[in-house]
Amino acid sequence: MQLNESTYETIFLLYIDKELSPKEGLEVEAFIADNPSYALEMEALQATVLSSEKIQYPFKENLKHQDWEPTYSTIIKEDLQAIPGLSTSFKNTLKKDATTEGIILKPFGFSQQKFTYAAIAACLMVFLGYQQLTKAPVSNSIAANKTTLVVPNTNSTKPSDEIGLSNASPEKFAKVNVLVPKINQVQKLNVQAVNAKNIQRINLLQKESIAMAETAPANISINQNVITKLPSNYNNPISVNAIPIIITSIDIETAIEEHGQISYEVIDTEDPNRSIFIANFEIDGNKLRGLKRKVTSLFKNNKSDRK
Amino acid sequence: MTDKAYNDCVDNFADGVYRFIVKNIRHTEDAQDIVQSAFEKLWINREQVLPEKAKSYLFTVAYHQMIDHIRKTNKMPLSEDTFIPHQQITQADEELKQVLMRAINELNPIQKSLVLLKDYEGYSYQEIGEIMHLSESQVKVYLHRARLILKNKLSAYAPTAS
Lengths: 307, 162
Known about the structure:
The complex is a heterodimer of chains A (307) and B (162).
Chain A: H1 8-16, H2 22-34, H3 37-46, H4 60-63, H5 72-82, H6 88-97, H7 112-134, H8 141-144, H9 170-179, E1 189-190, H10 196-207, H11 210-219, E2 223-224, E3 226-227, E4 250-251, H12 252-259, E5 275-278, E6 281-284, H13 285-306
Antiparallel strand pairs in A: 1-3, 2-4, 5-6
Helix pairs in contact in A: 1-3, 5-6, 7-13, 10-11
Chain B: H1 3-25, H2 28-44, H3 54-73, H4 92-105, H5 109-119, H6 125-132, H7 136-161
Helix pairs in contact in B: 1-2, 1-3, 2-3, 3-6, 4-7, 5-7, 6-7
């Protein structure tokens, strides 16, 4: 470090900022002692240094992390002091029960977050219920017929094709397995293939289409497979593929007329008086429909807003 | 950092951080908010902050929040609190201190923060550079400029005082 006319100011600034080593600091002090004219310069620079000033942050305690939380016994103890009418023995009883520390009792034990989840779940249930409301109930009239079973053959288009269940595809087995338990006594099973167009209509009838349910019995002559009898000790529907089969053909309209079964229920989904049941709760279908429209419009609005 | 170490930081550094901020922005409520935000951030990141770095961390966070605050509010410097060189003197030392503070308040925010961190907190150039995201040489140059400005302000005041 070389102190002279051109470097003194920088070195003095480093000195007042305490950025010099002790040895360098002594050199500066010696330089000032040898050159008193620089003492005023040093004094002027030191005057720019702020002196220490005590300023307190007023809310220091609020910044601290609080470990302490009131325990059950603490709450009980404080509350008991506030109730003058209670007898001492009763207070002692409560204190004994309150000796277990640790858990803070929260009112109702239900947080805001839980309420939110419950509300979302309830809305979801209502929405799903409405979805079910708008669907037609599956008509089981044919399947419920105790003497008639429809076993469609979707692979064959020839009405004269005859197939045994032992040669049928797994799809056919599945249909048979569902329907067979409804039959009490069947000894022979007649299966006749029907054309694919009629089969599709039958399937729709069995599932959920109300419109098809209305039109199918009137317009279509549907061939079906009929299981007339099963052995009395028959329990396992899977074993049906081992049963001897005799194929006959019955018109479905005839079967319905003979057995007097109700085919399908025509449901008007736009009926405002229709209600939906979720567990034991009955929900007004009209109001639910309005709610759905509002929710749907809300989502649409959000989507359009984003766009 | 443990909970206890955090509470120790509150005890040891809250006043210093508050002084640094309130001297800079000269608004107590805003300064308190900034200090609270700085400690909140320290609490959130306490697992990553070493206790020996906590003070520097607090000043760094508080400084940058203060800069954001200044940019948002555009409050600096206050026009009614400007430096007056030829003010009457009642008590020389107290008045000199007030004059110096007024002169400091006329500095730009960076120079002002440099002076406050250096004089109040005693940070080195390197530490100040880490807090303010400046190089050590930048800190040195900016601080020396600020000192010379203050010196000139005070010398303008001195003839009247004498």
